[in-house]
Amino acid sequence: MLLSGIFAPITTPFYPDGEVYYKKIEANVERYSRTPLAGIVVQGSTGEAVMLSNQERRDILKAAIAAAAPSKVMIAGTGVESANETLRLTEYAAELGYDAAMILTPHYYKEQMRQENILAFFRTVADRSPLPVMLYNIPQATGYDLPAEIVAELAAHPNIIAIKESGGNLDKVRAMIEATRSVKRQATVTDTFAAVTPRMLKAAVAESEKMSSELVSVASLTGLSNSQQSEPSKPGALLSAETVSKTLPSSSAVTMVGKLKTRQKEVGFQVMVGNAQQLQTSLGLGAAGGILAFACPAPMACYEIYAAVKDGDRVLANDKQERVKLAAQRVVAGFGVPGVKYAMELNAYFGGPARLPFLPLKGDEKTEIEKLMAGIKS
Inter-axis angle of helices 22-32 and 54-67, to 10 degrees? Predict the structure, then answer.
C-alpha cells in the first residue's frame, strides 16, 4: 500500500469530567476529511492512547472511521505491550475497515527489549495481522529507540510496509532510507498515483452498484425492457467494474473499479516522519511523508510544505517550513498534547481538555501559543 503525504494523528476529545466526547471526534474527522491530508491516524501518542481503556480505544476507532471520507487512508494505532493484545486490537480495526495498523514498540521491560525480542514481536504480529503494519518509534515517550539496523531487517517482511519515525534524528532517517532501498513492492494507486486502499475500492464498487440500481429504476419507470436496461452499448448504460476491466486493452496500465481508475506502482519501504519542524529536510532525504501532531491544528500549513517539496519549489518549501518551524517545535514538543489541543481551538477544531496527569495550560502558556499560531490558519 502506498503511504505518502501528510497525516494527522488526531487527538481524543474529552468532556470536562474526562469522558470521551465522541461527537467531537466525528466533527473533527469530518473536517479533516475536507482538507488535503492524505489520511488520518487514530490512537497514536497525540490521541492519548495510553490513557484510554481497551473499550474506549475500540469505540474511538469505530467513531473515527465512521466519520472519515472514503478517500482518506485510515491508520489505526493498535500497539500495546503484548503481541496477543496488539493482534486483538488490530483484528478489530480490520473488521472496522482500517487500511493499516501502526504498532508502537514494546518498551515497558526495557532491559529485555533486545534485538531478538523486538524482531520476534514485530514478525509475529506481522505474520498474523490482517492489516499492513507500520512500525512506530517514539523514543522521547517510550525511552526505547528502535535501531535502524532492526528496522532494515523488519522492512524485509512482506507485511511490514513503513515506519513512523518520531525520534527527530535526521541521520537515522537517512540511514533507514538507505538501508531499505532494496525493498520493492507493487501497490495499487489511482491514475494520478495517489493511494488506493481496500476501503476505497469497496466504496467505489458500492457507488457503482448504487448508480446501476438507480439507472435500472429509472429505466423501469420509462418502460424499457430488461434487455434494453442491460445493453452495454446503449448511451448512458453503466458497465460493471469487471466488464469495464475486460473491455480495456490488455496493454493498458489502467483498471477501472466503478469510477475509480487504478494502476500499479512500485513502492519501497516507506519512512514517515513525526516532526513538522524537520519535514522539508526529511522529504529531501527521501521520506515519503509525515504523520505530524502539528497537522492537528494546522493541516494546510503542513501540506503546503509537502506540496512545495514535491513540486520542486525549494524557495517556497523553505518559506513554508520556516513559517511553522518554531510553532511546531514549541506547541508539540514544548507543550505536548495540551498545547496541540489549545492550538486546535484557535483554528476552530475541537481540542478540549487532556486527561490527567496532563494539567490545563496556564495563562502565559496560552498566550505564547496564540502568538506562535498567529497567521497559521487551516
Answer: 40
Give first-to-last CA distance, the chain, whole Å: 28
Q: How far apart are CA 253 and CA 249, in angstroms?
A: 9
Beta strands at 100-104 and 289-291: parallel, antiparallel or unpaired? unpaired
Cell of 139: 523514543
The active-site residue out of 62, 72, 164, 366 is: 164
pTM for this model (two decimals):
0.89
Q: State the residue for C-alpha cell 494507486.
A: 189
Identify each DSSP E strand in the chain by its residue range. Answer: 5-9, 39-42, 73-77, 100-104, 133-137, 160-165, 185-190, 255-257, 260-267, 270-273, 289-291
For residue 266, with 0-12 CB atoms within 10 Å meaning exposed, 13-18 middle and 19 or more buried, which class applies? exposed
The owner of cell 469505540 is 59
- Cell numbers for 75, please give them: 491508520
Q: What are the extents of the domains in the chain?
A: 5-184+268-317, 198-261
pLDDT in tens, the chain (378 residues): 999 999 999 999 999 999 999 999 999 999 999 999 999 999 999 999 999 999 999 999 999 999 999 999 999 999 999 999 999 999 999 999 999 999 999 999 999 999 999 999 999 999 999 999 999 999 999 999 999 999 999 999 999 999 999 999 999 999 999 999 999 999 999 988 899 998 889 888 887 777 777 666 555 555 554 444 444 433 333 334 343 333 333 334 888 888 889 999 999 999 999 999 999 999 999 999 999 999 999 999 999 999 999 999 999 999 999 999 999 999 999 999 999 999 999 999 999 999 999 999 999 999 999 999 999 987
Whether 184 is catalytic: no
| Closest residue by Cα to residue 144 from 180, 101, 112 | 112
**CATH fold of 5-184+268-317:** TIM Barrel (3.20.20)
CA 111 – CA 143 distance, rounded (Å): 11
What angle separates helix 115-128 from helix 83-96, to the nearest 10 degrees?
30
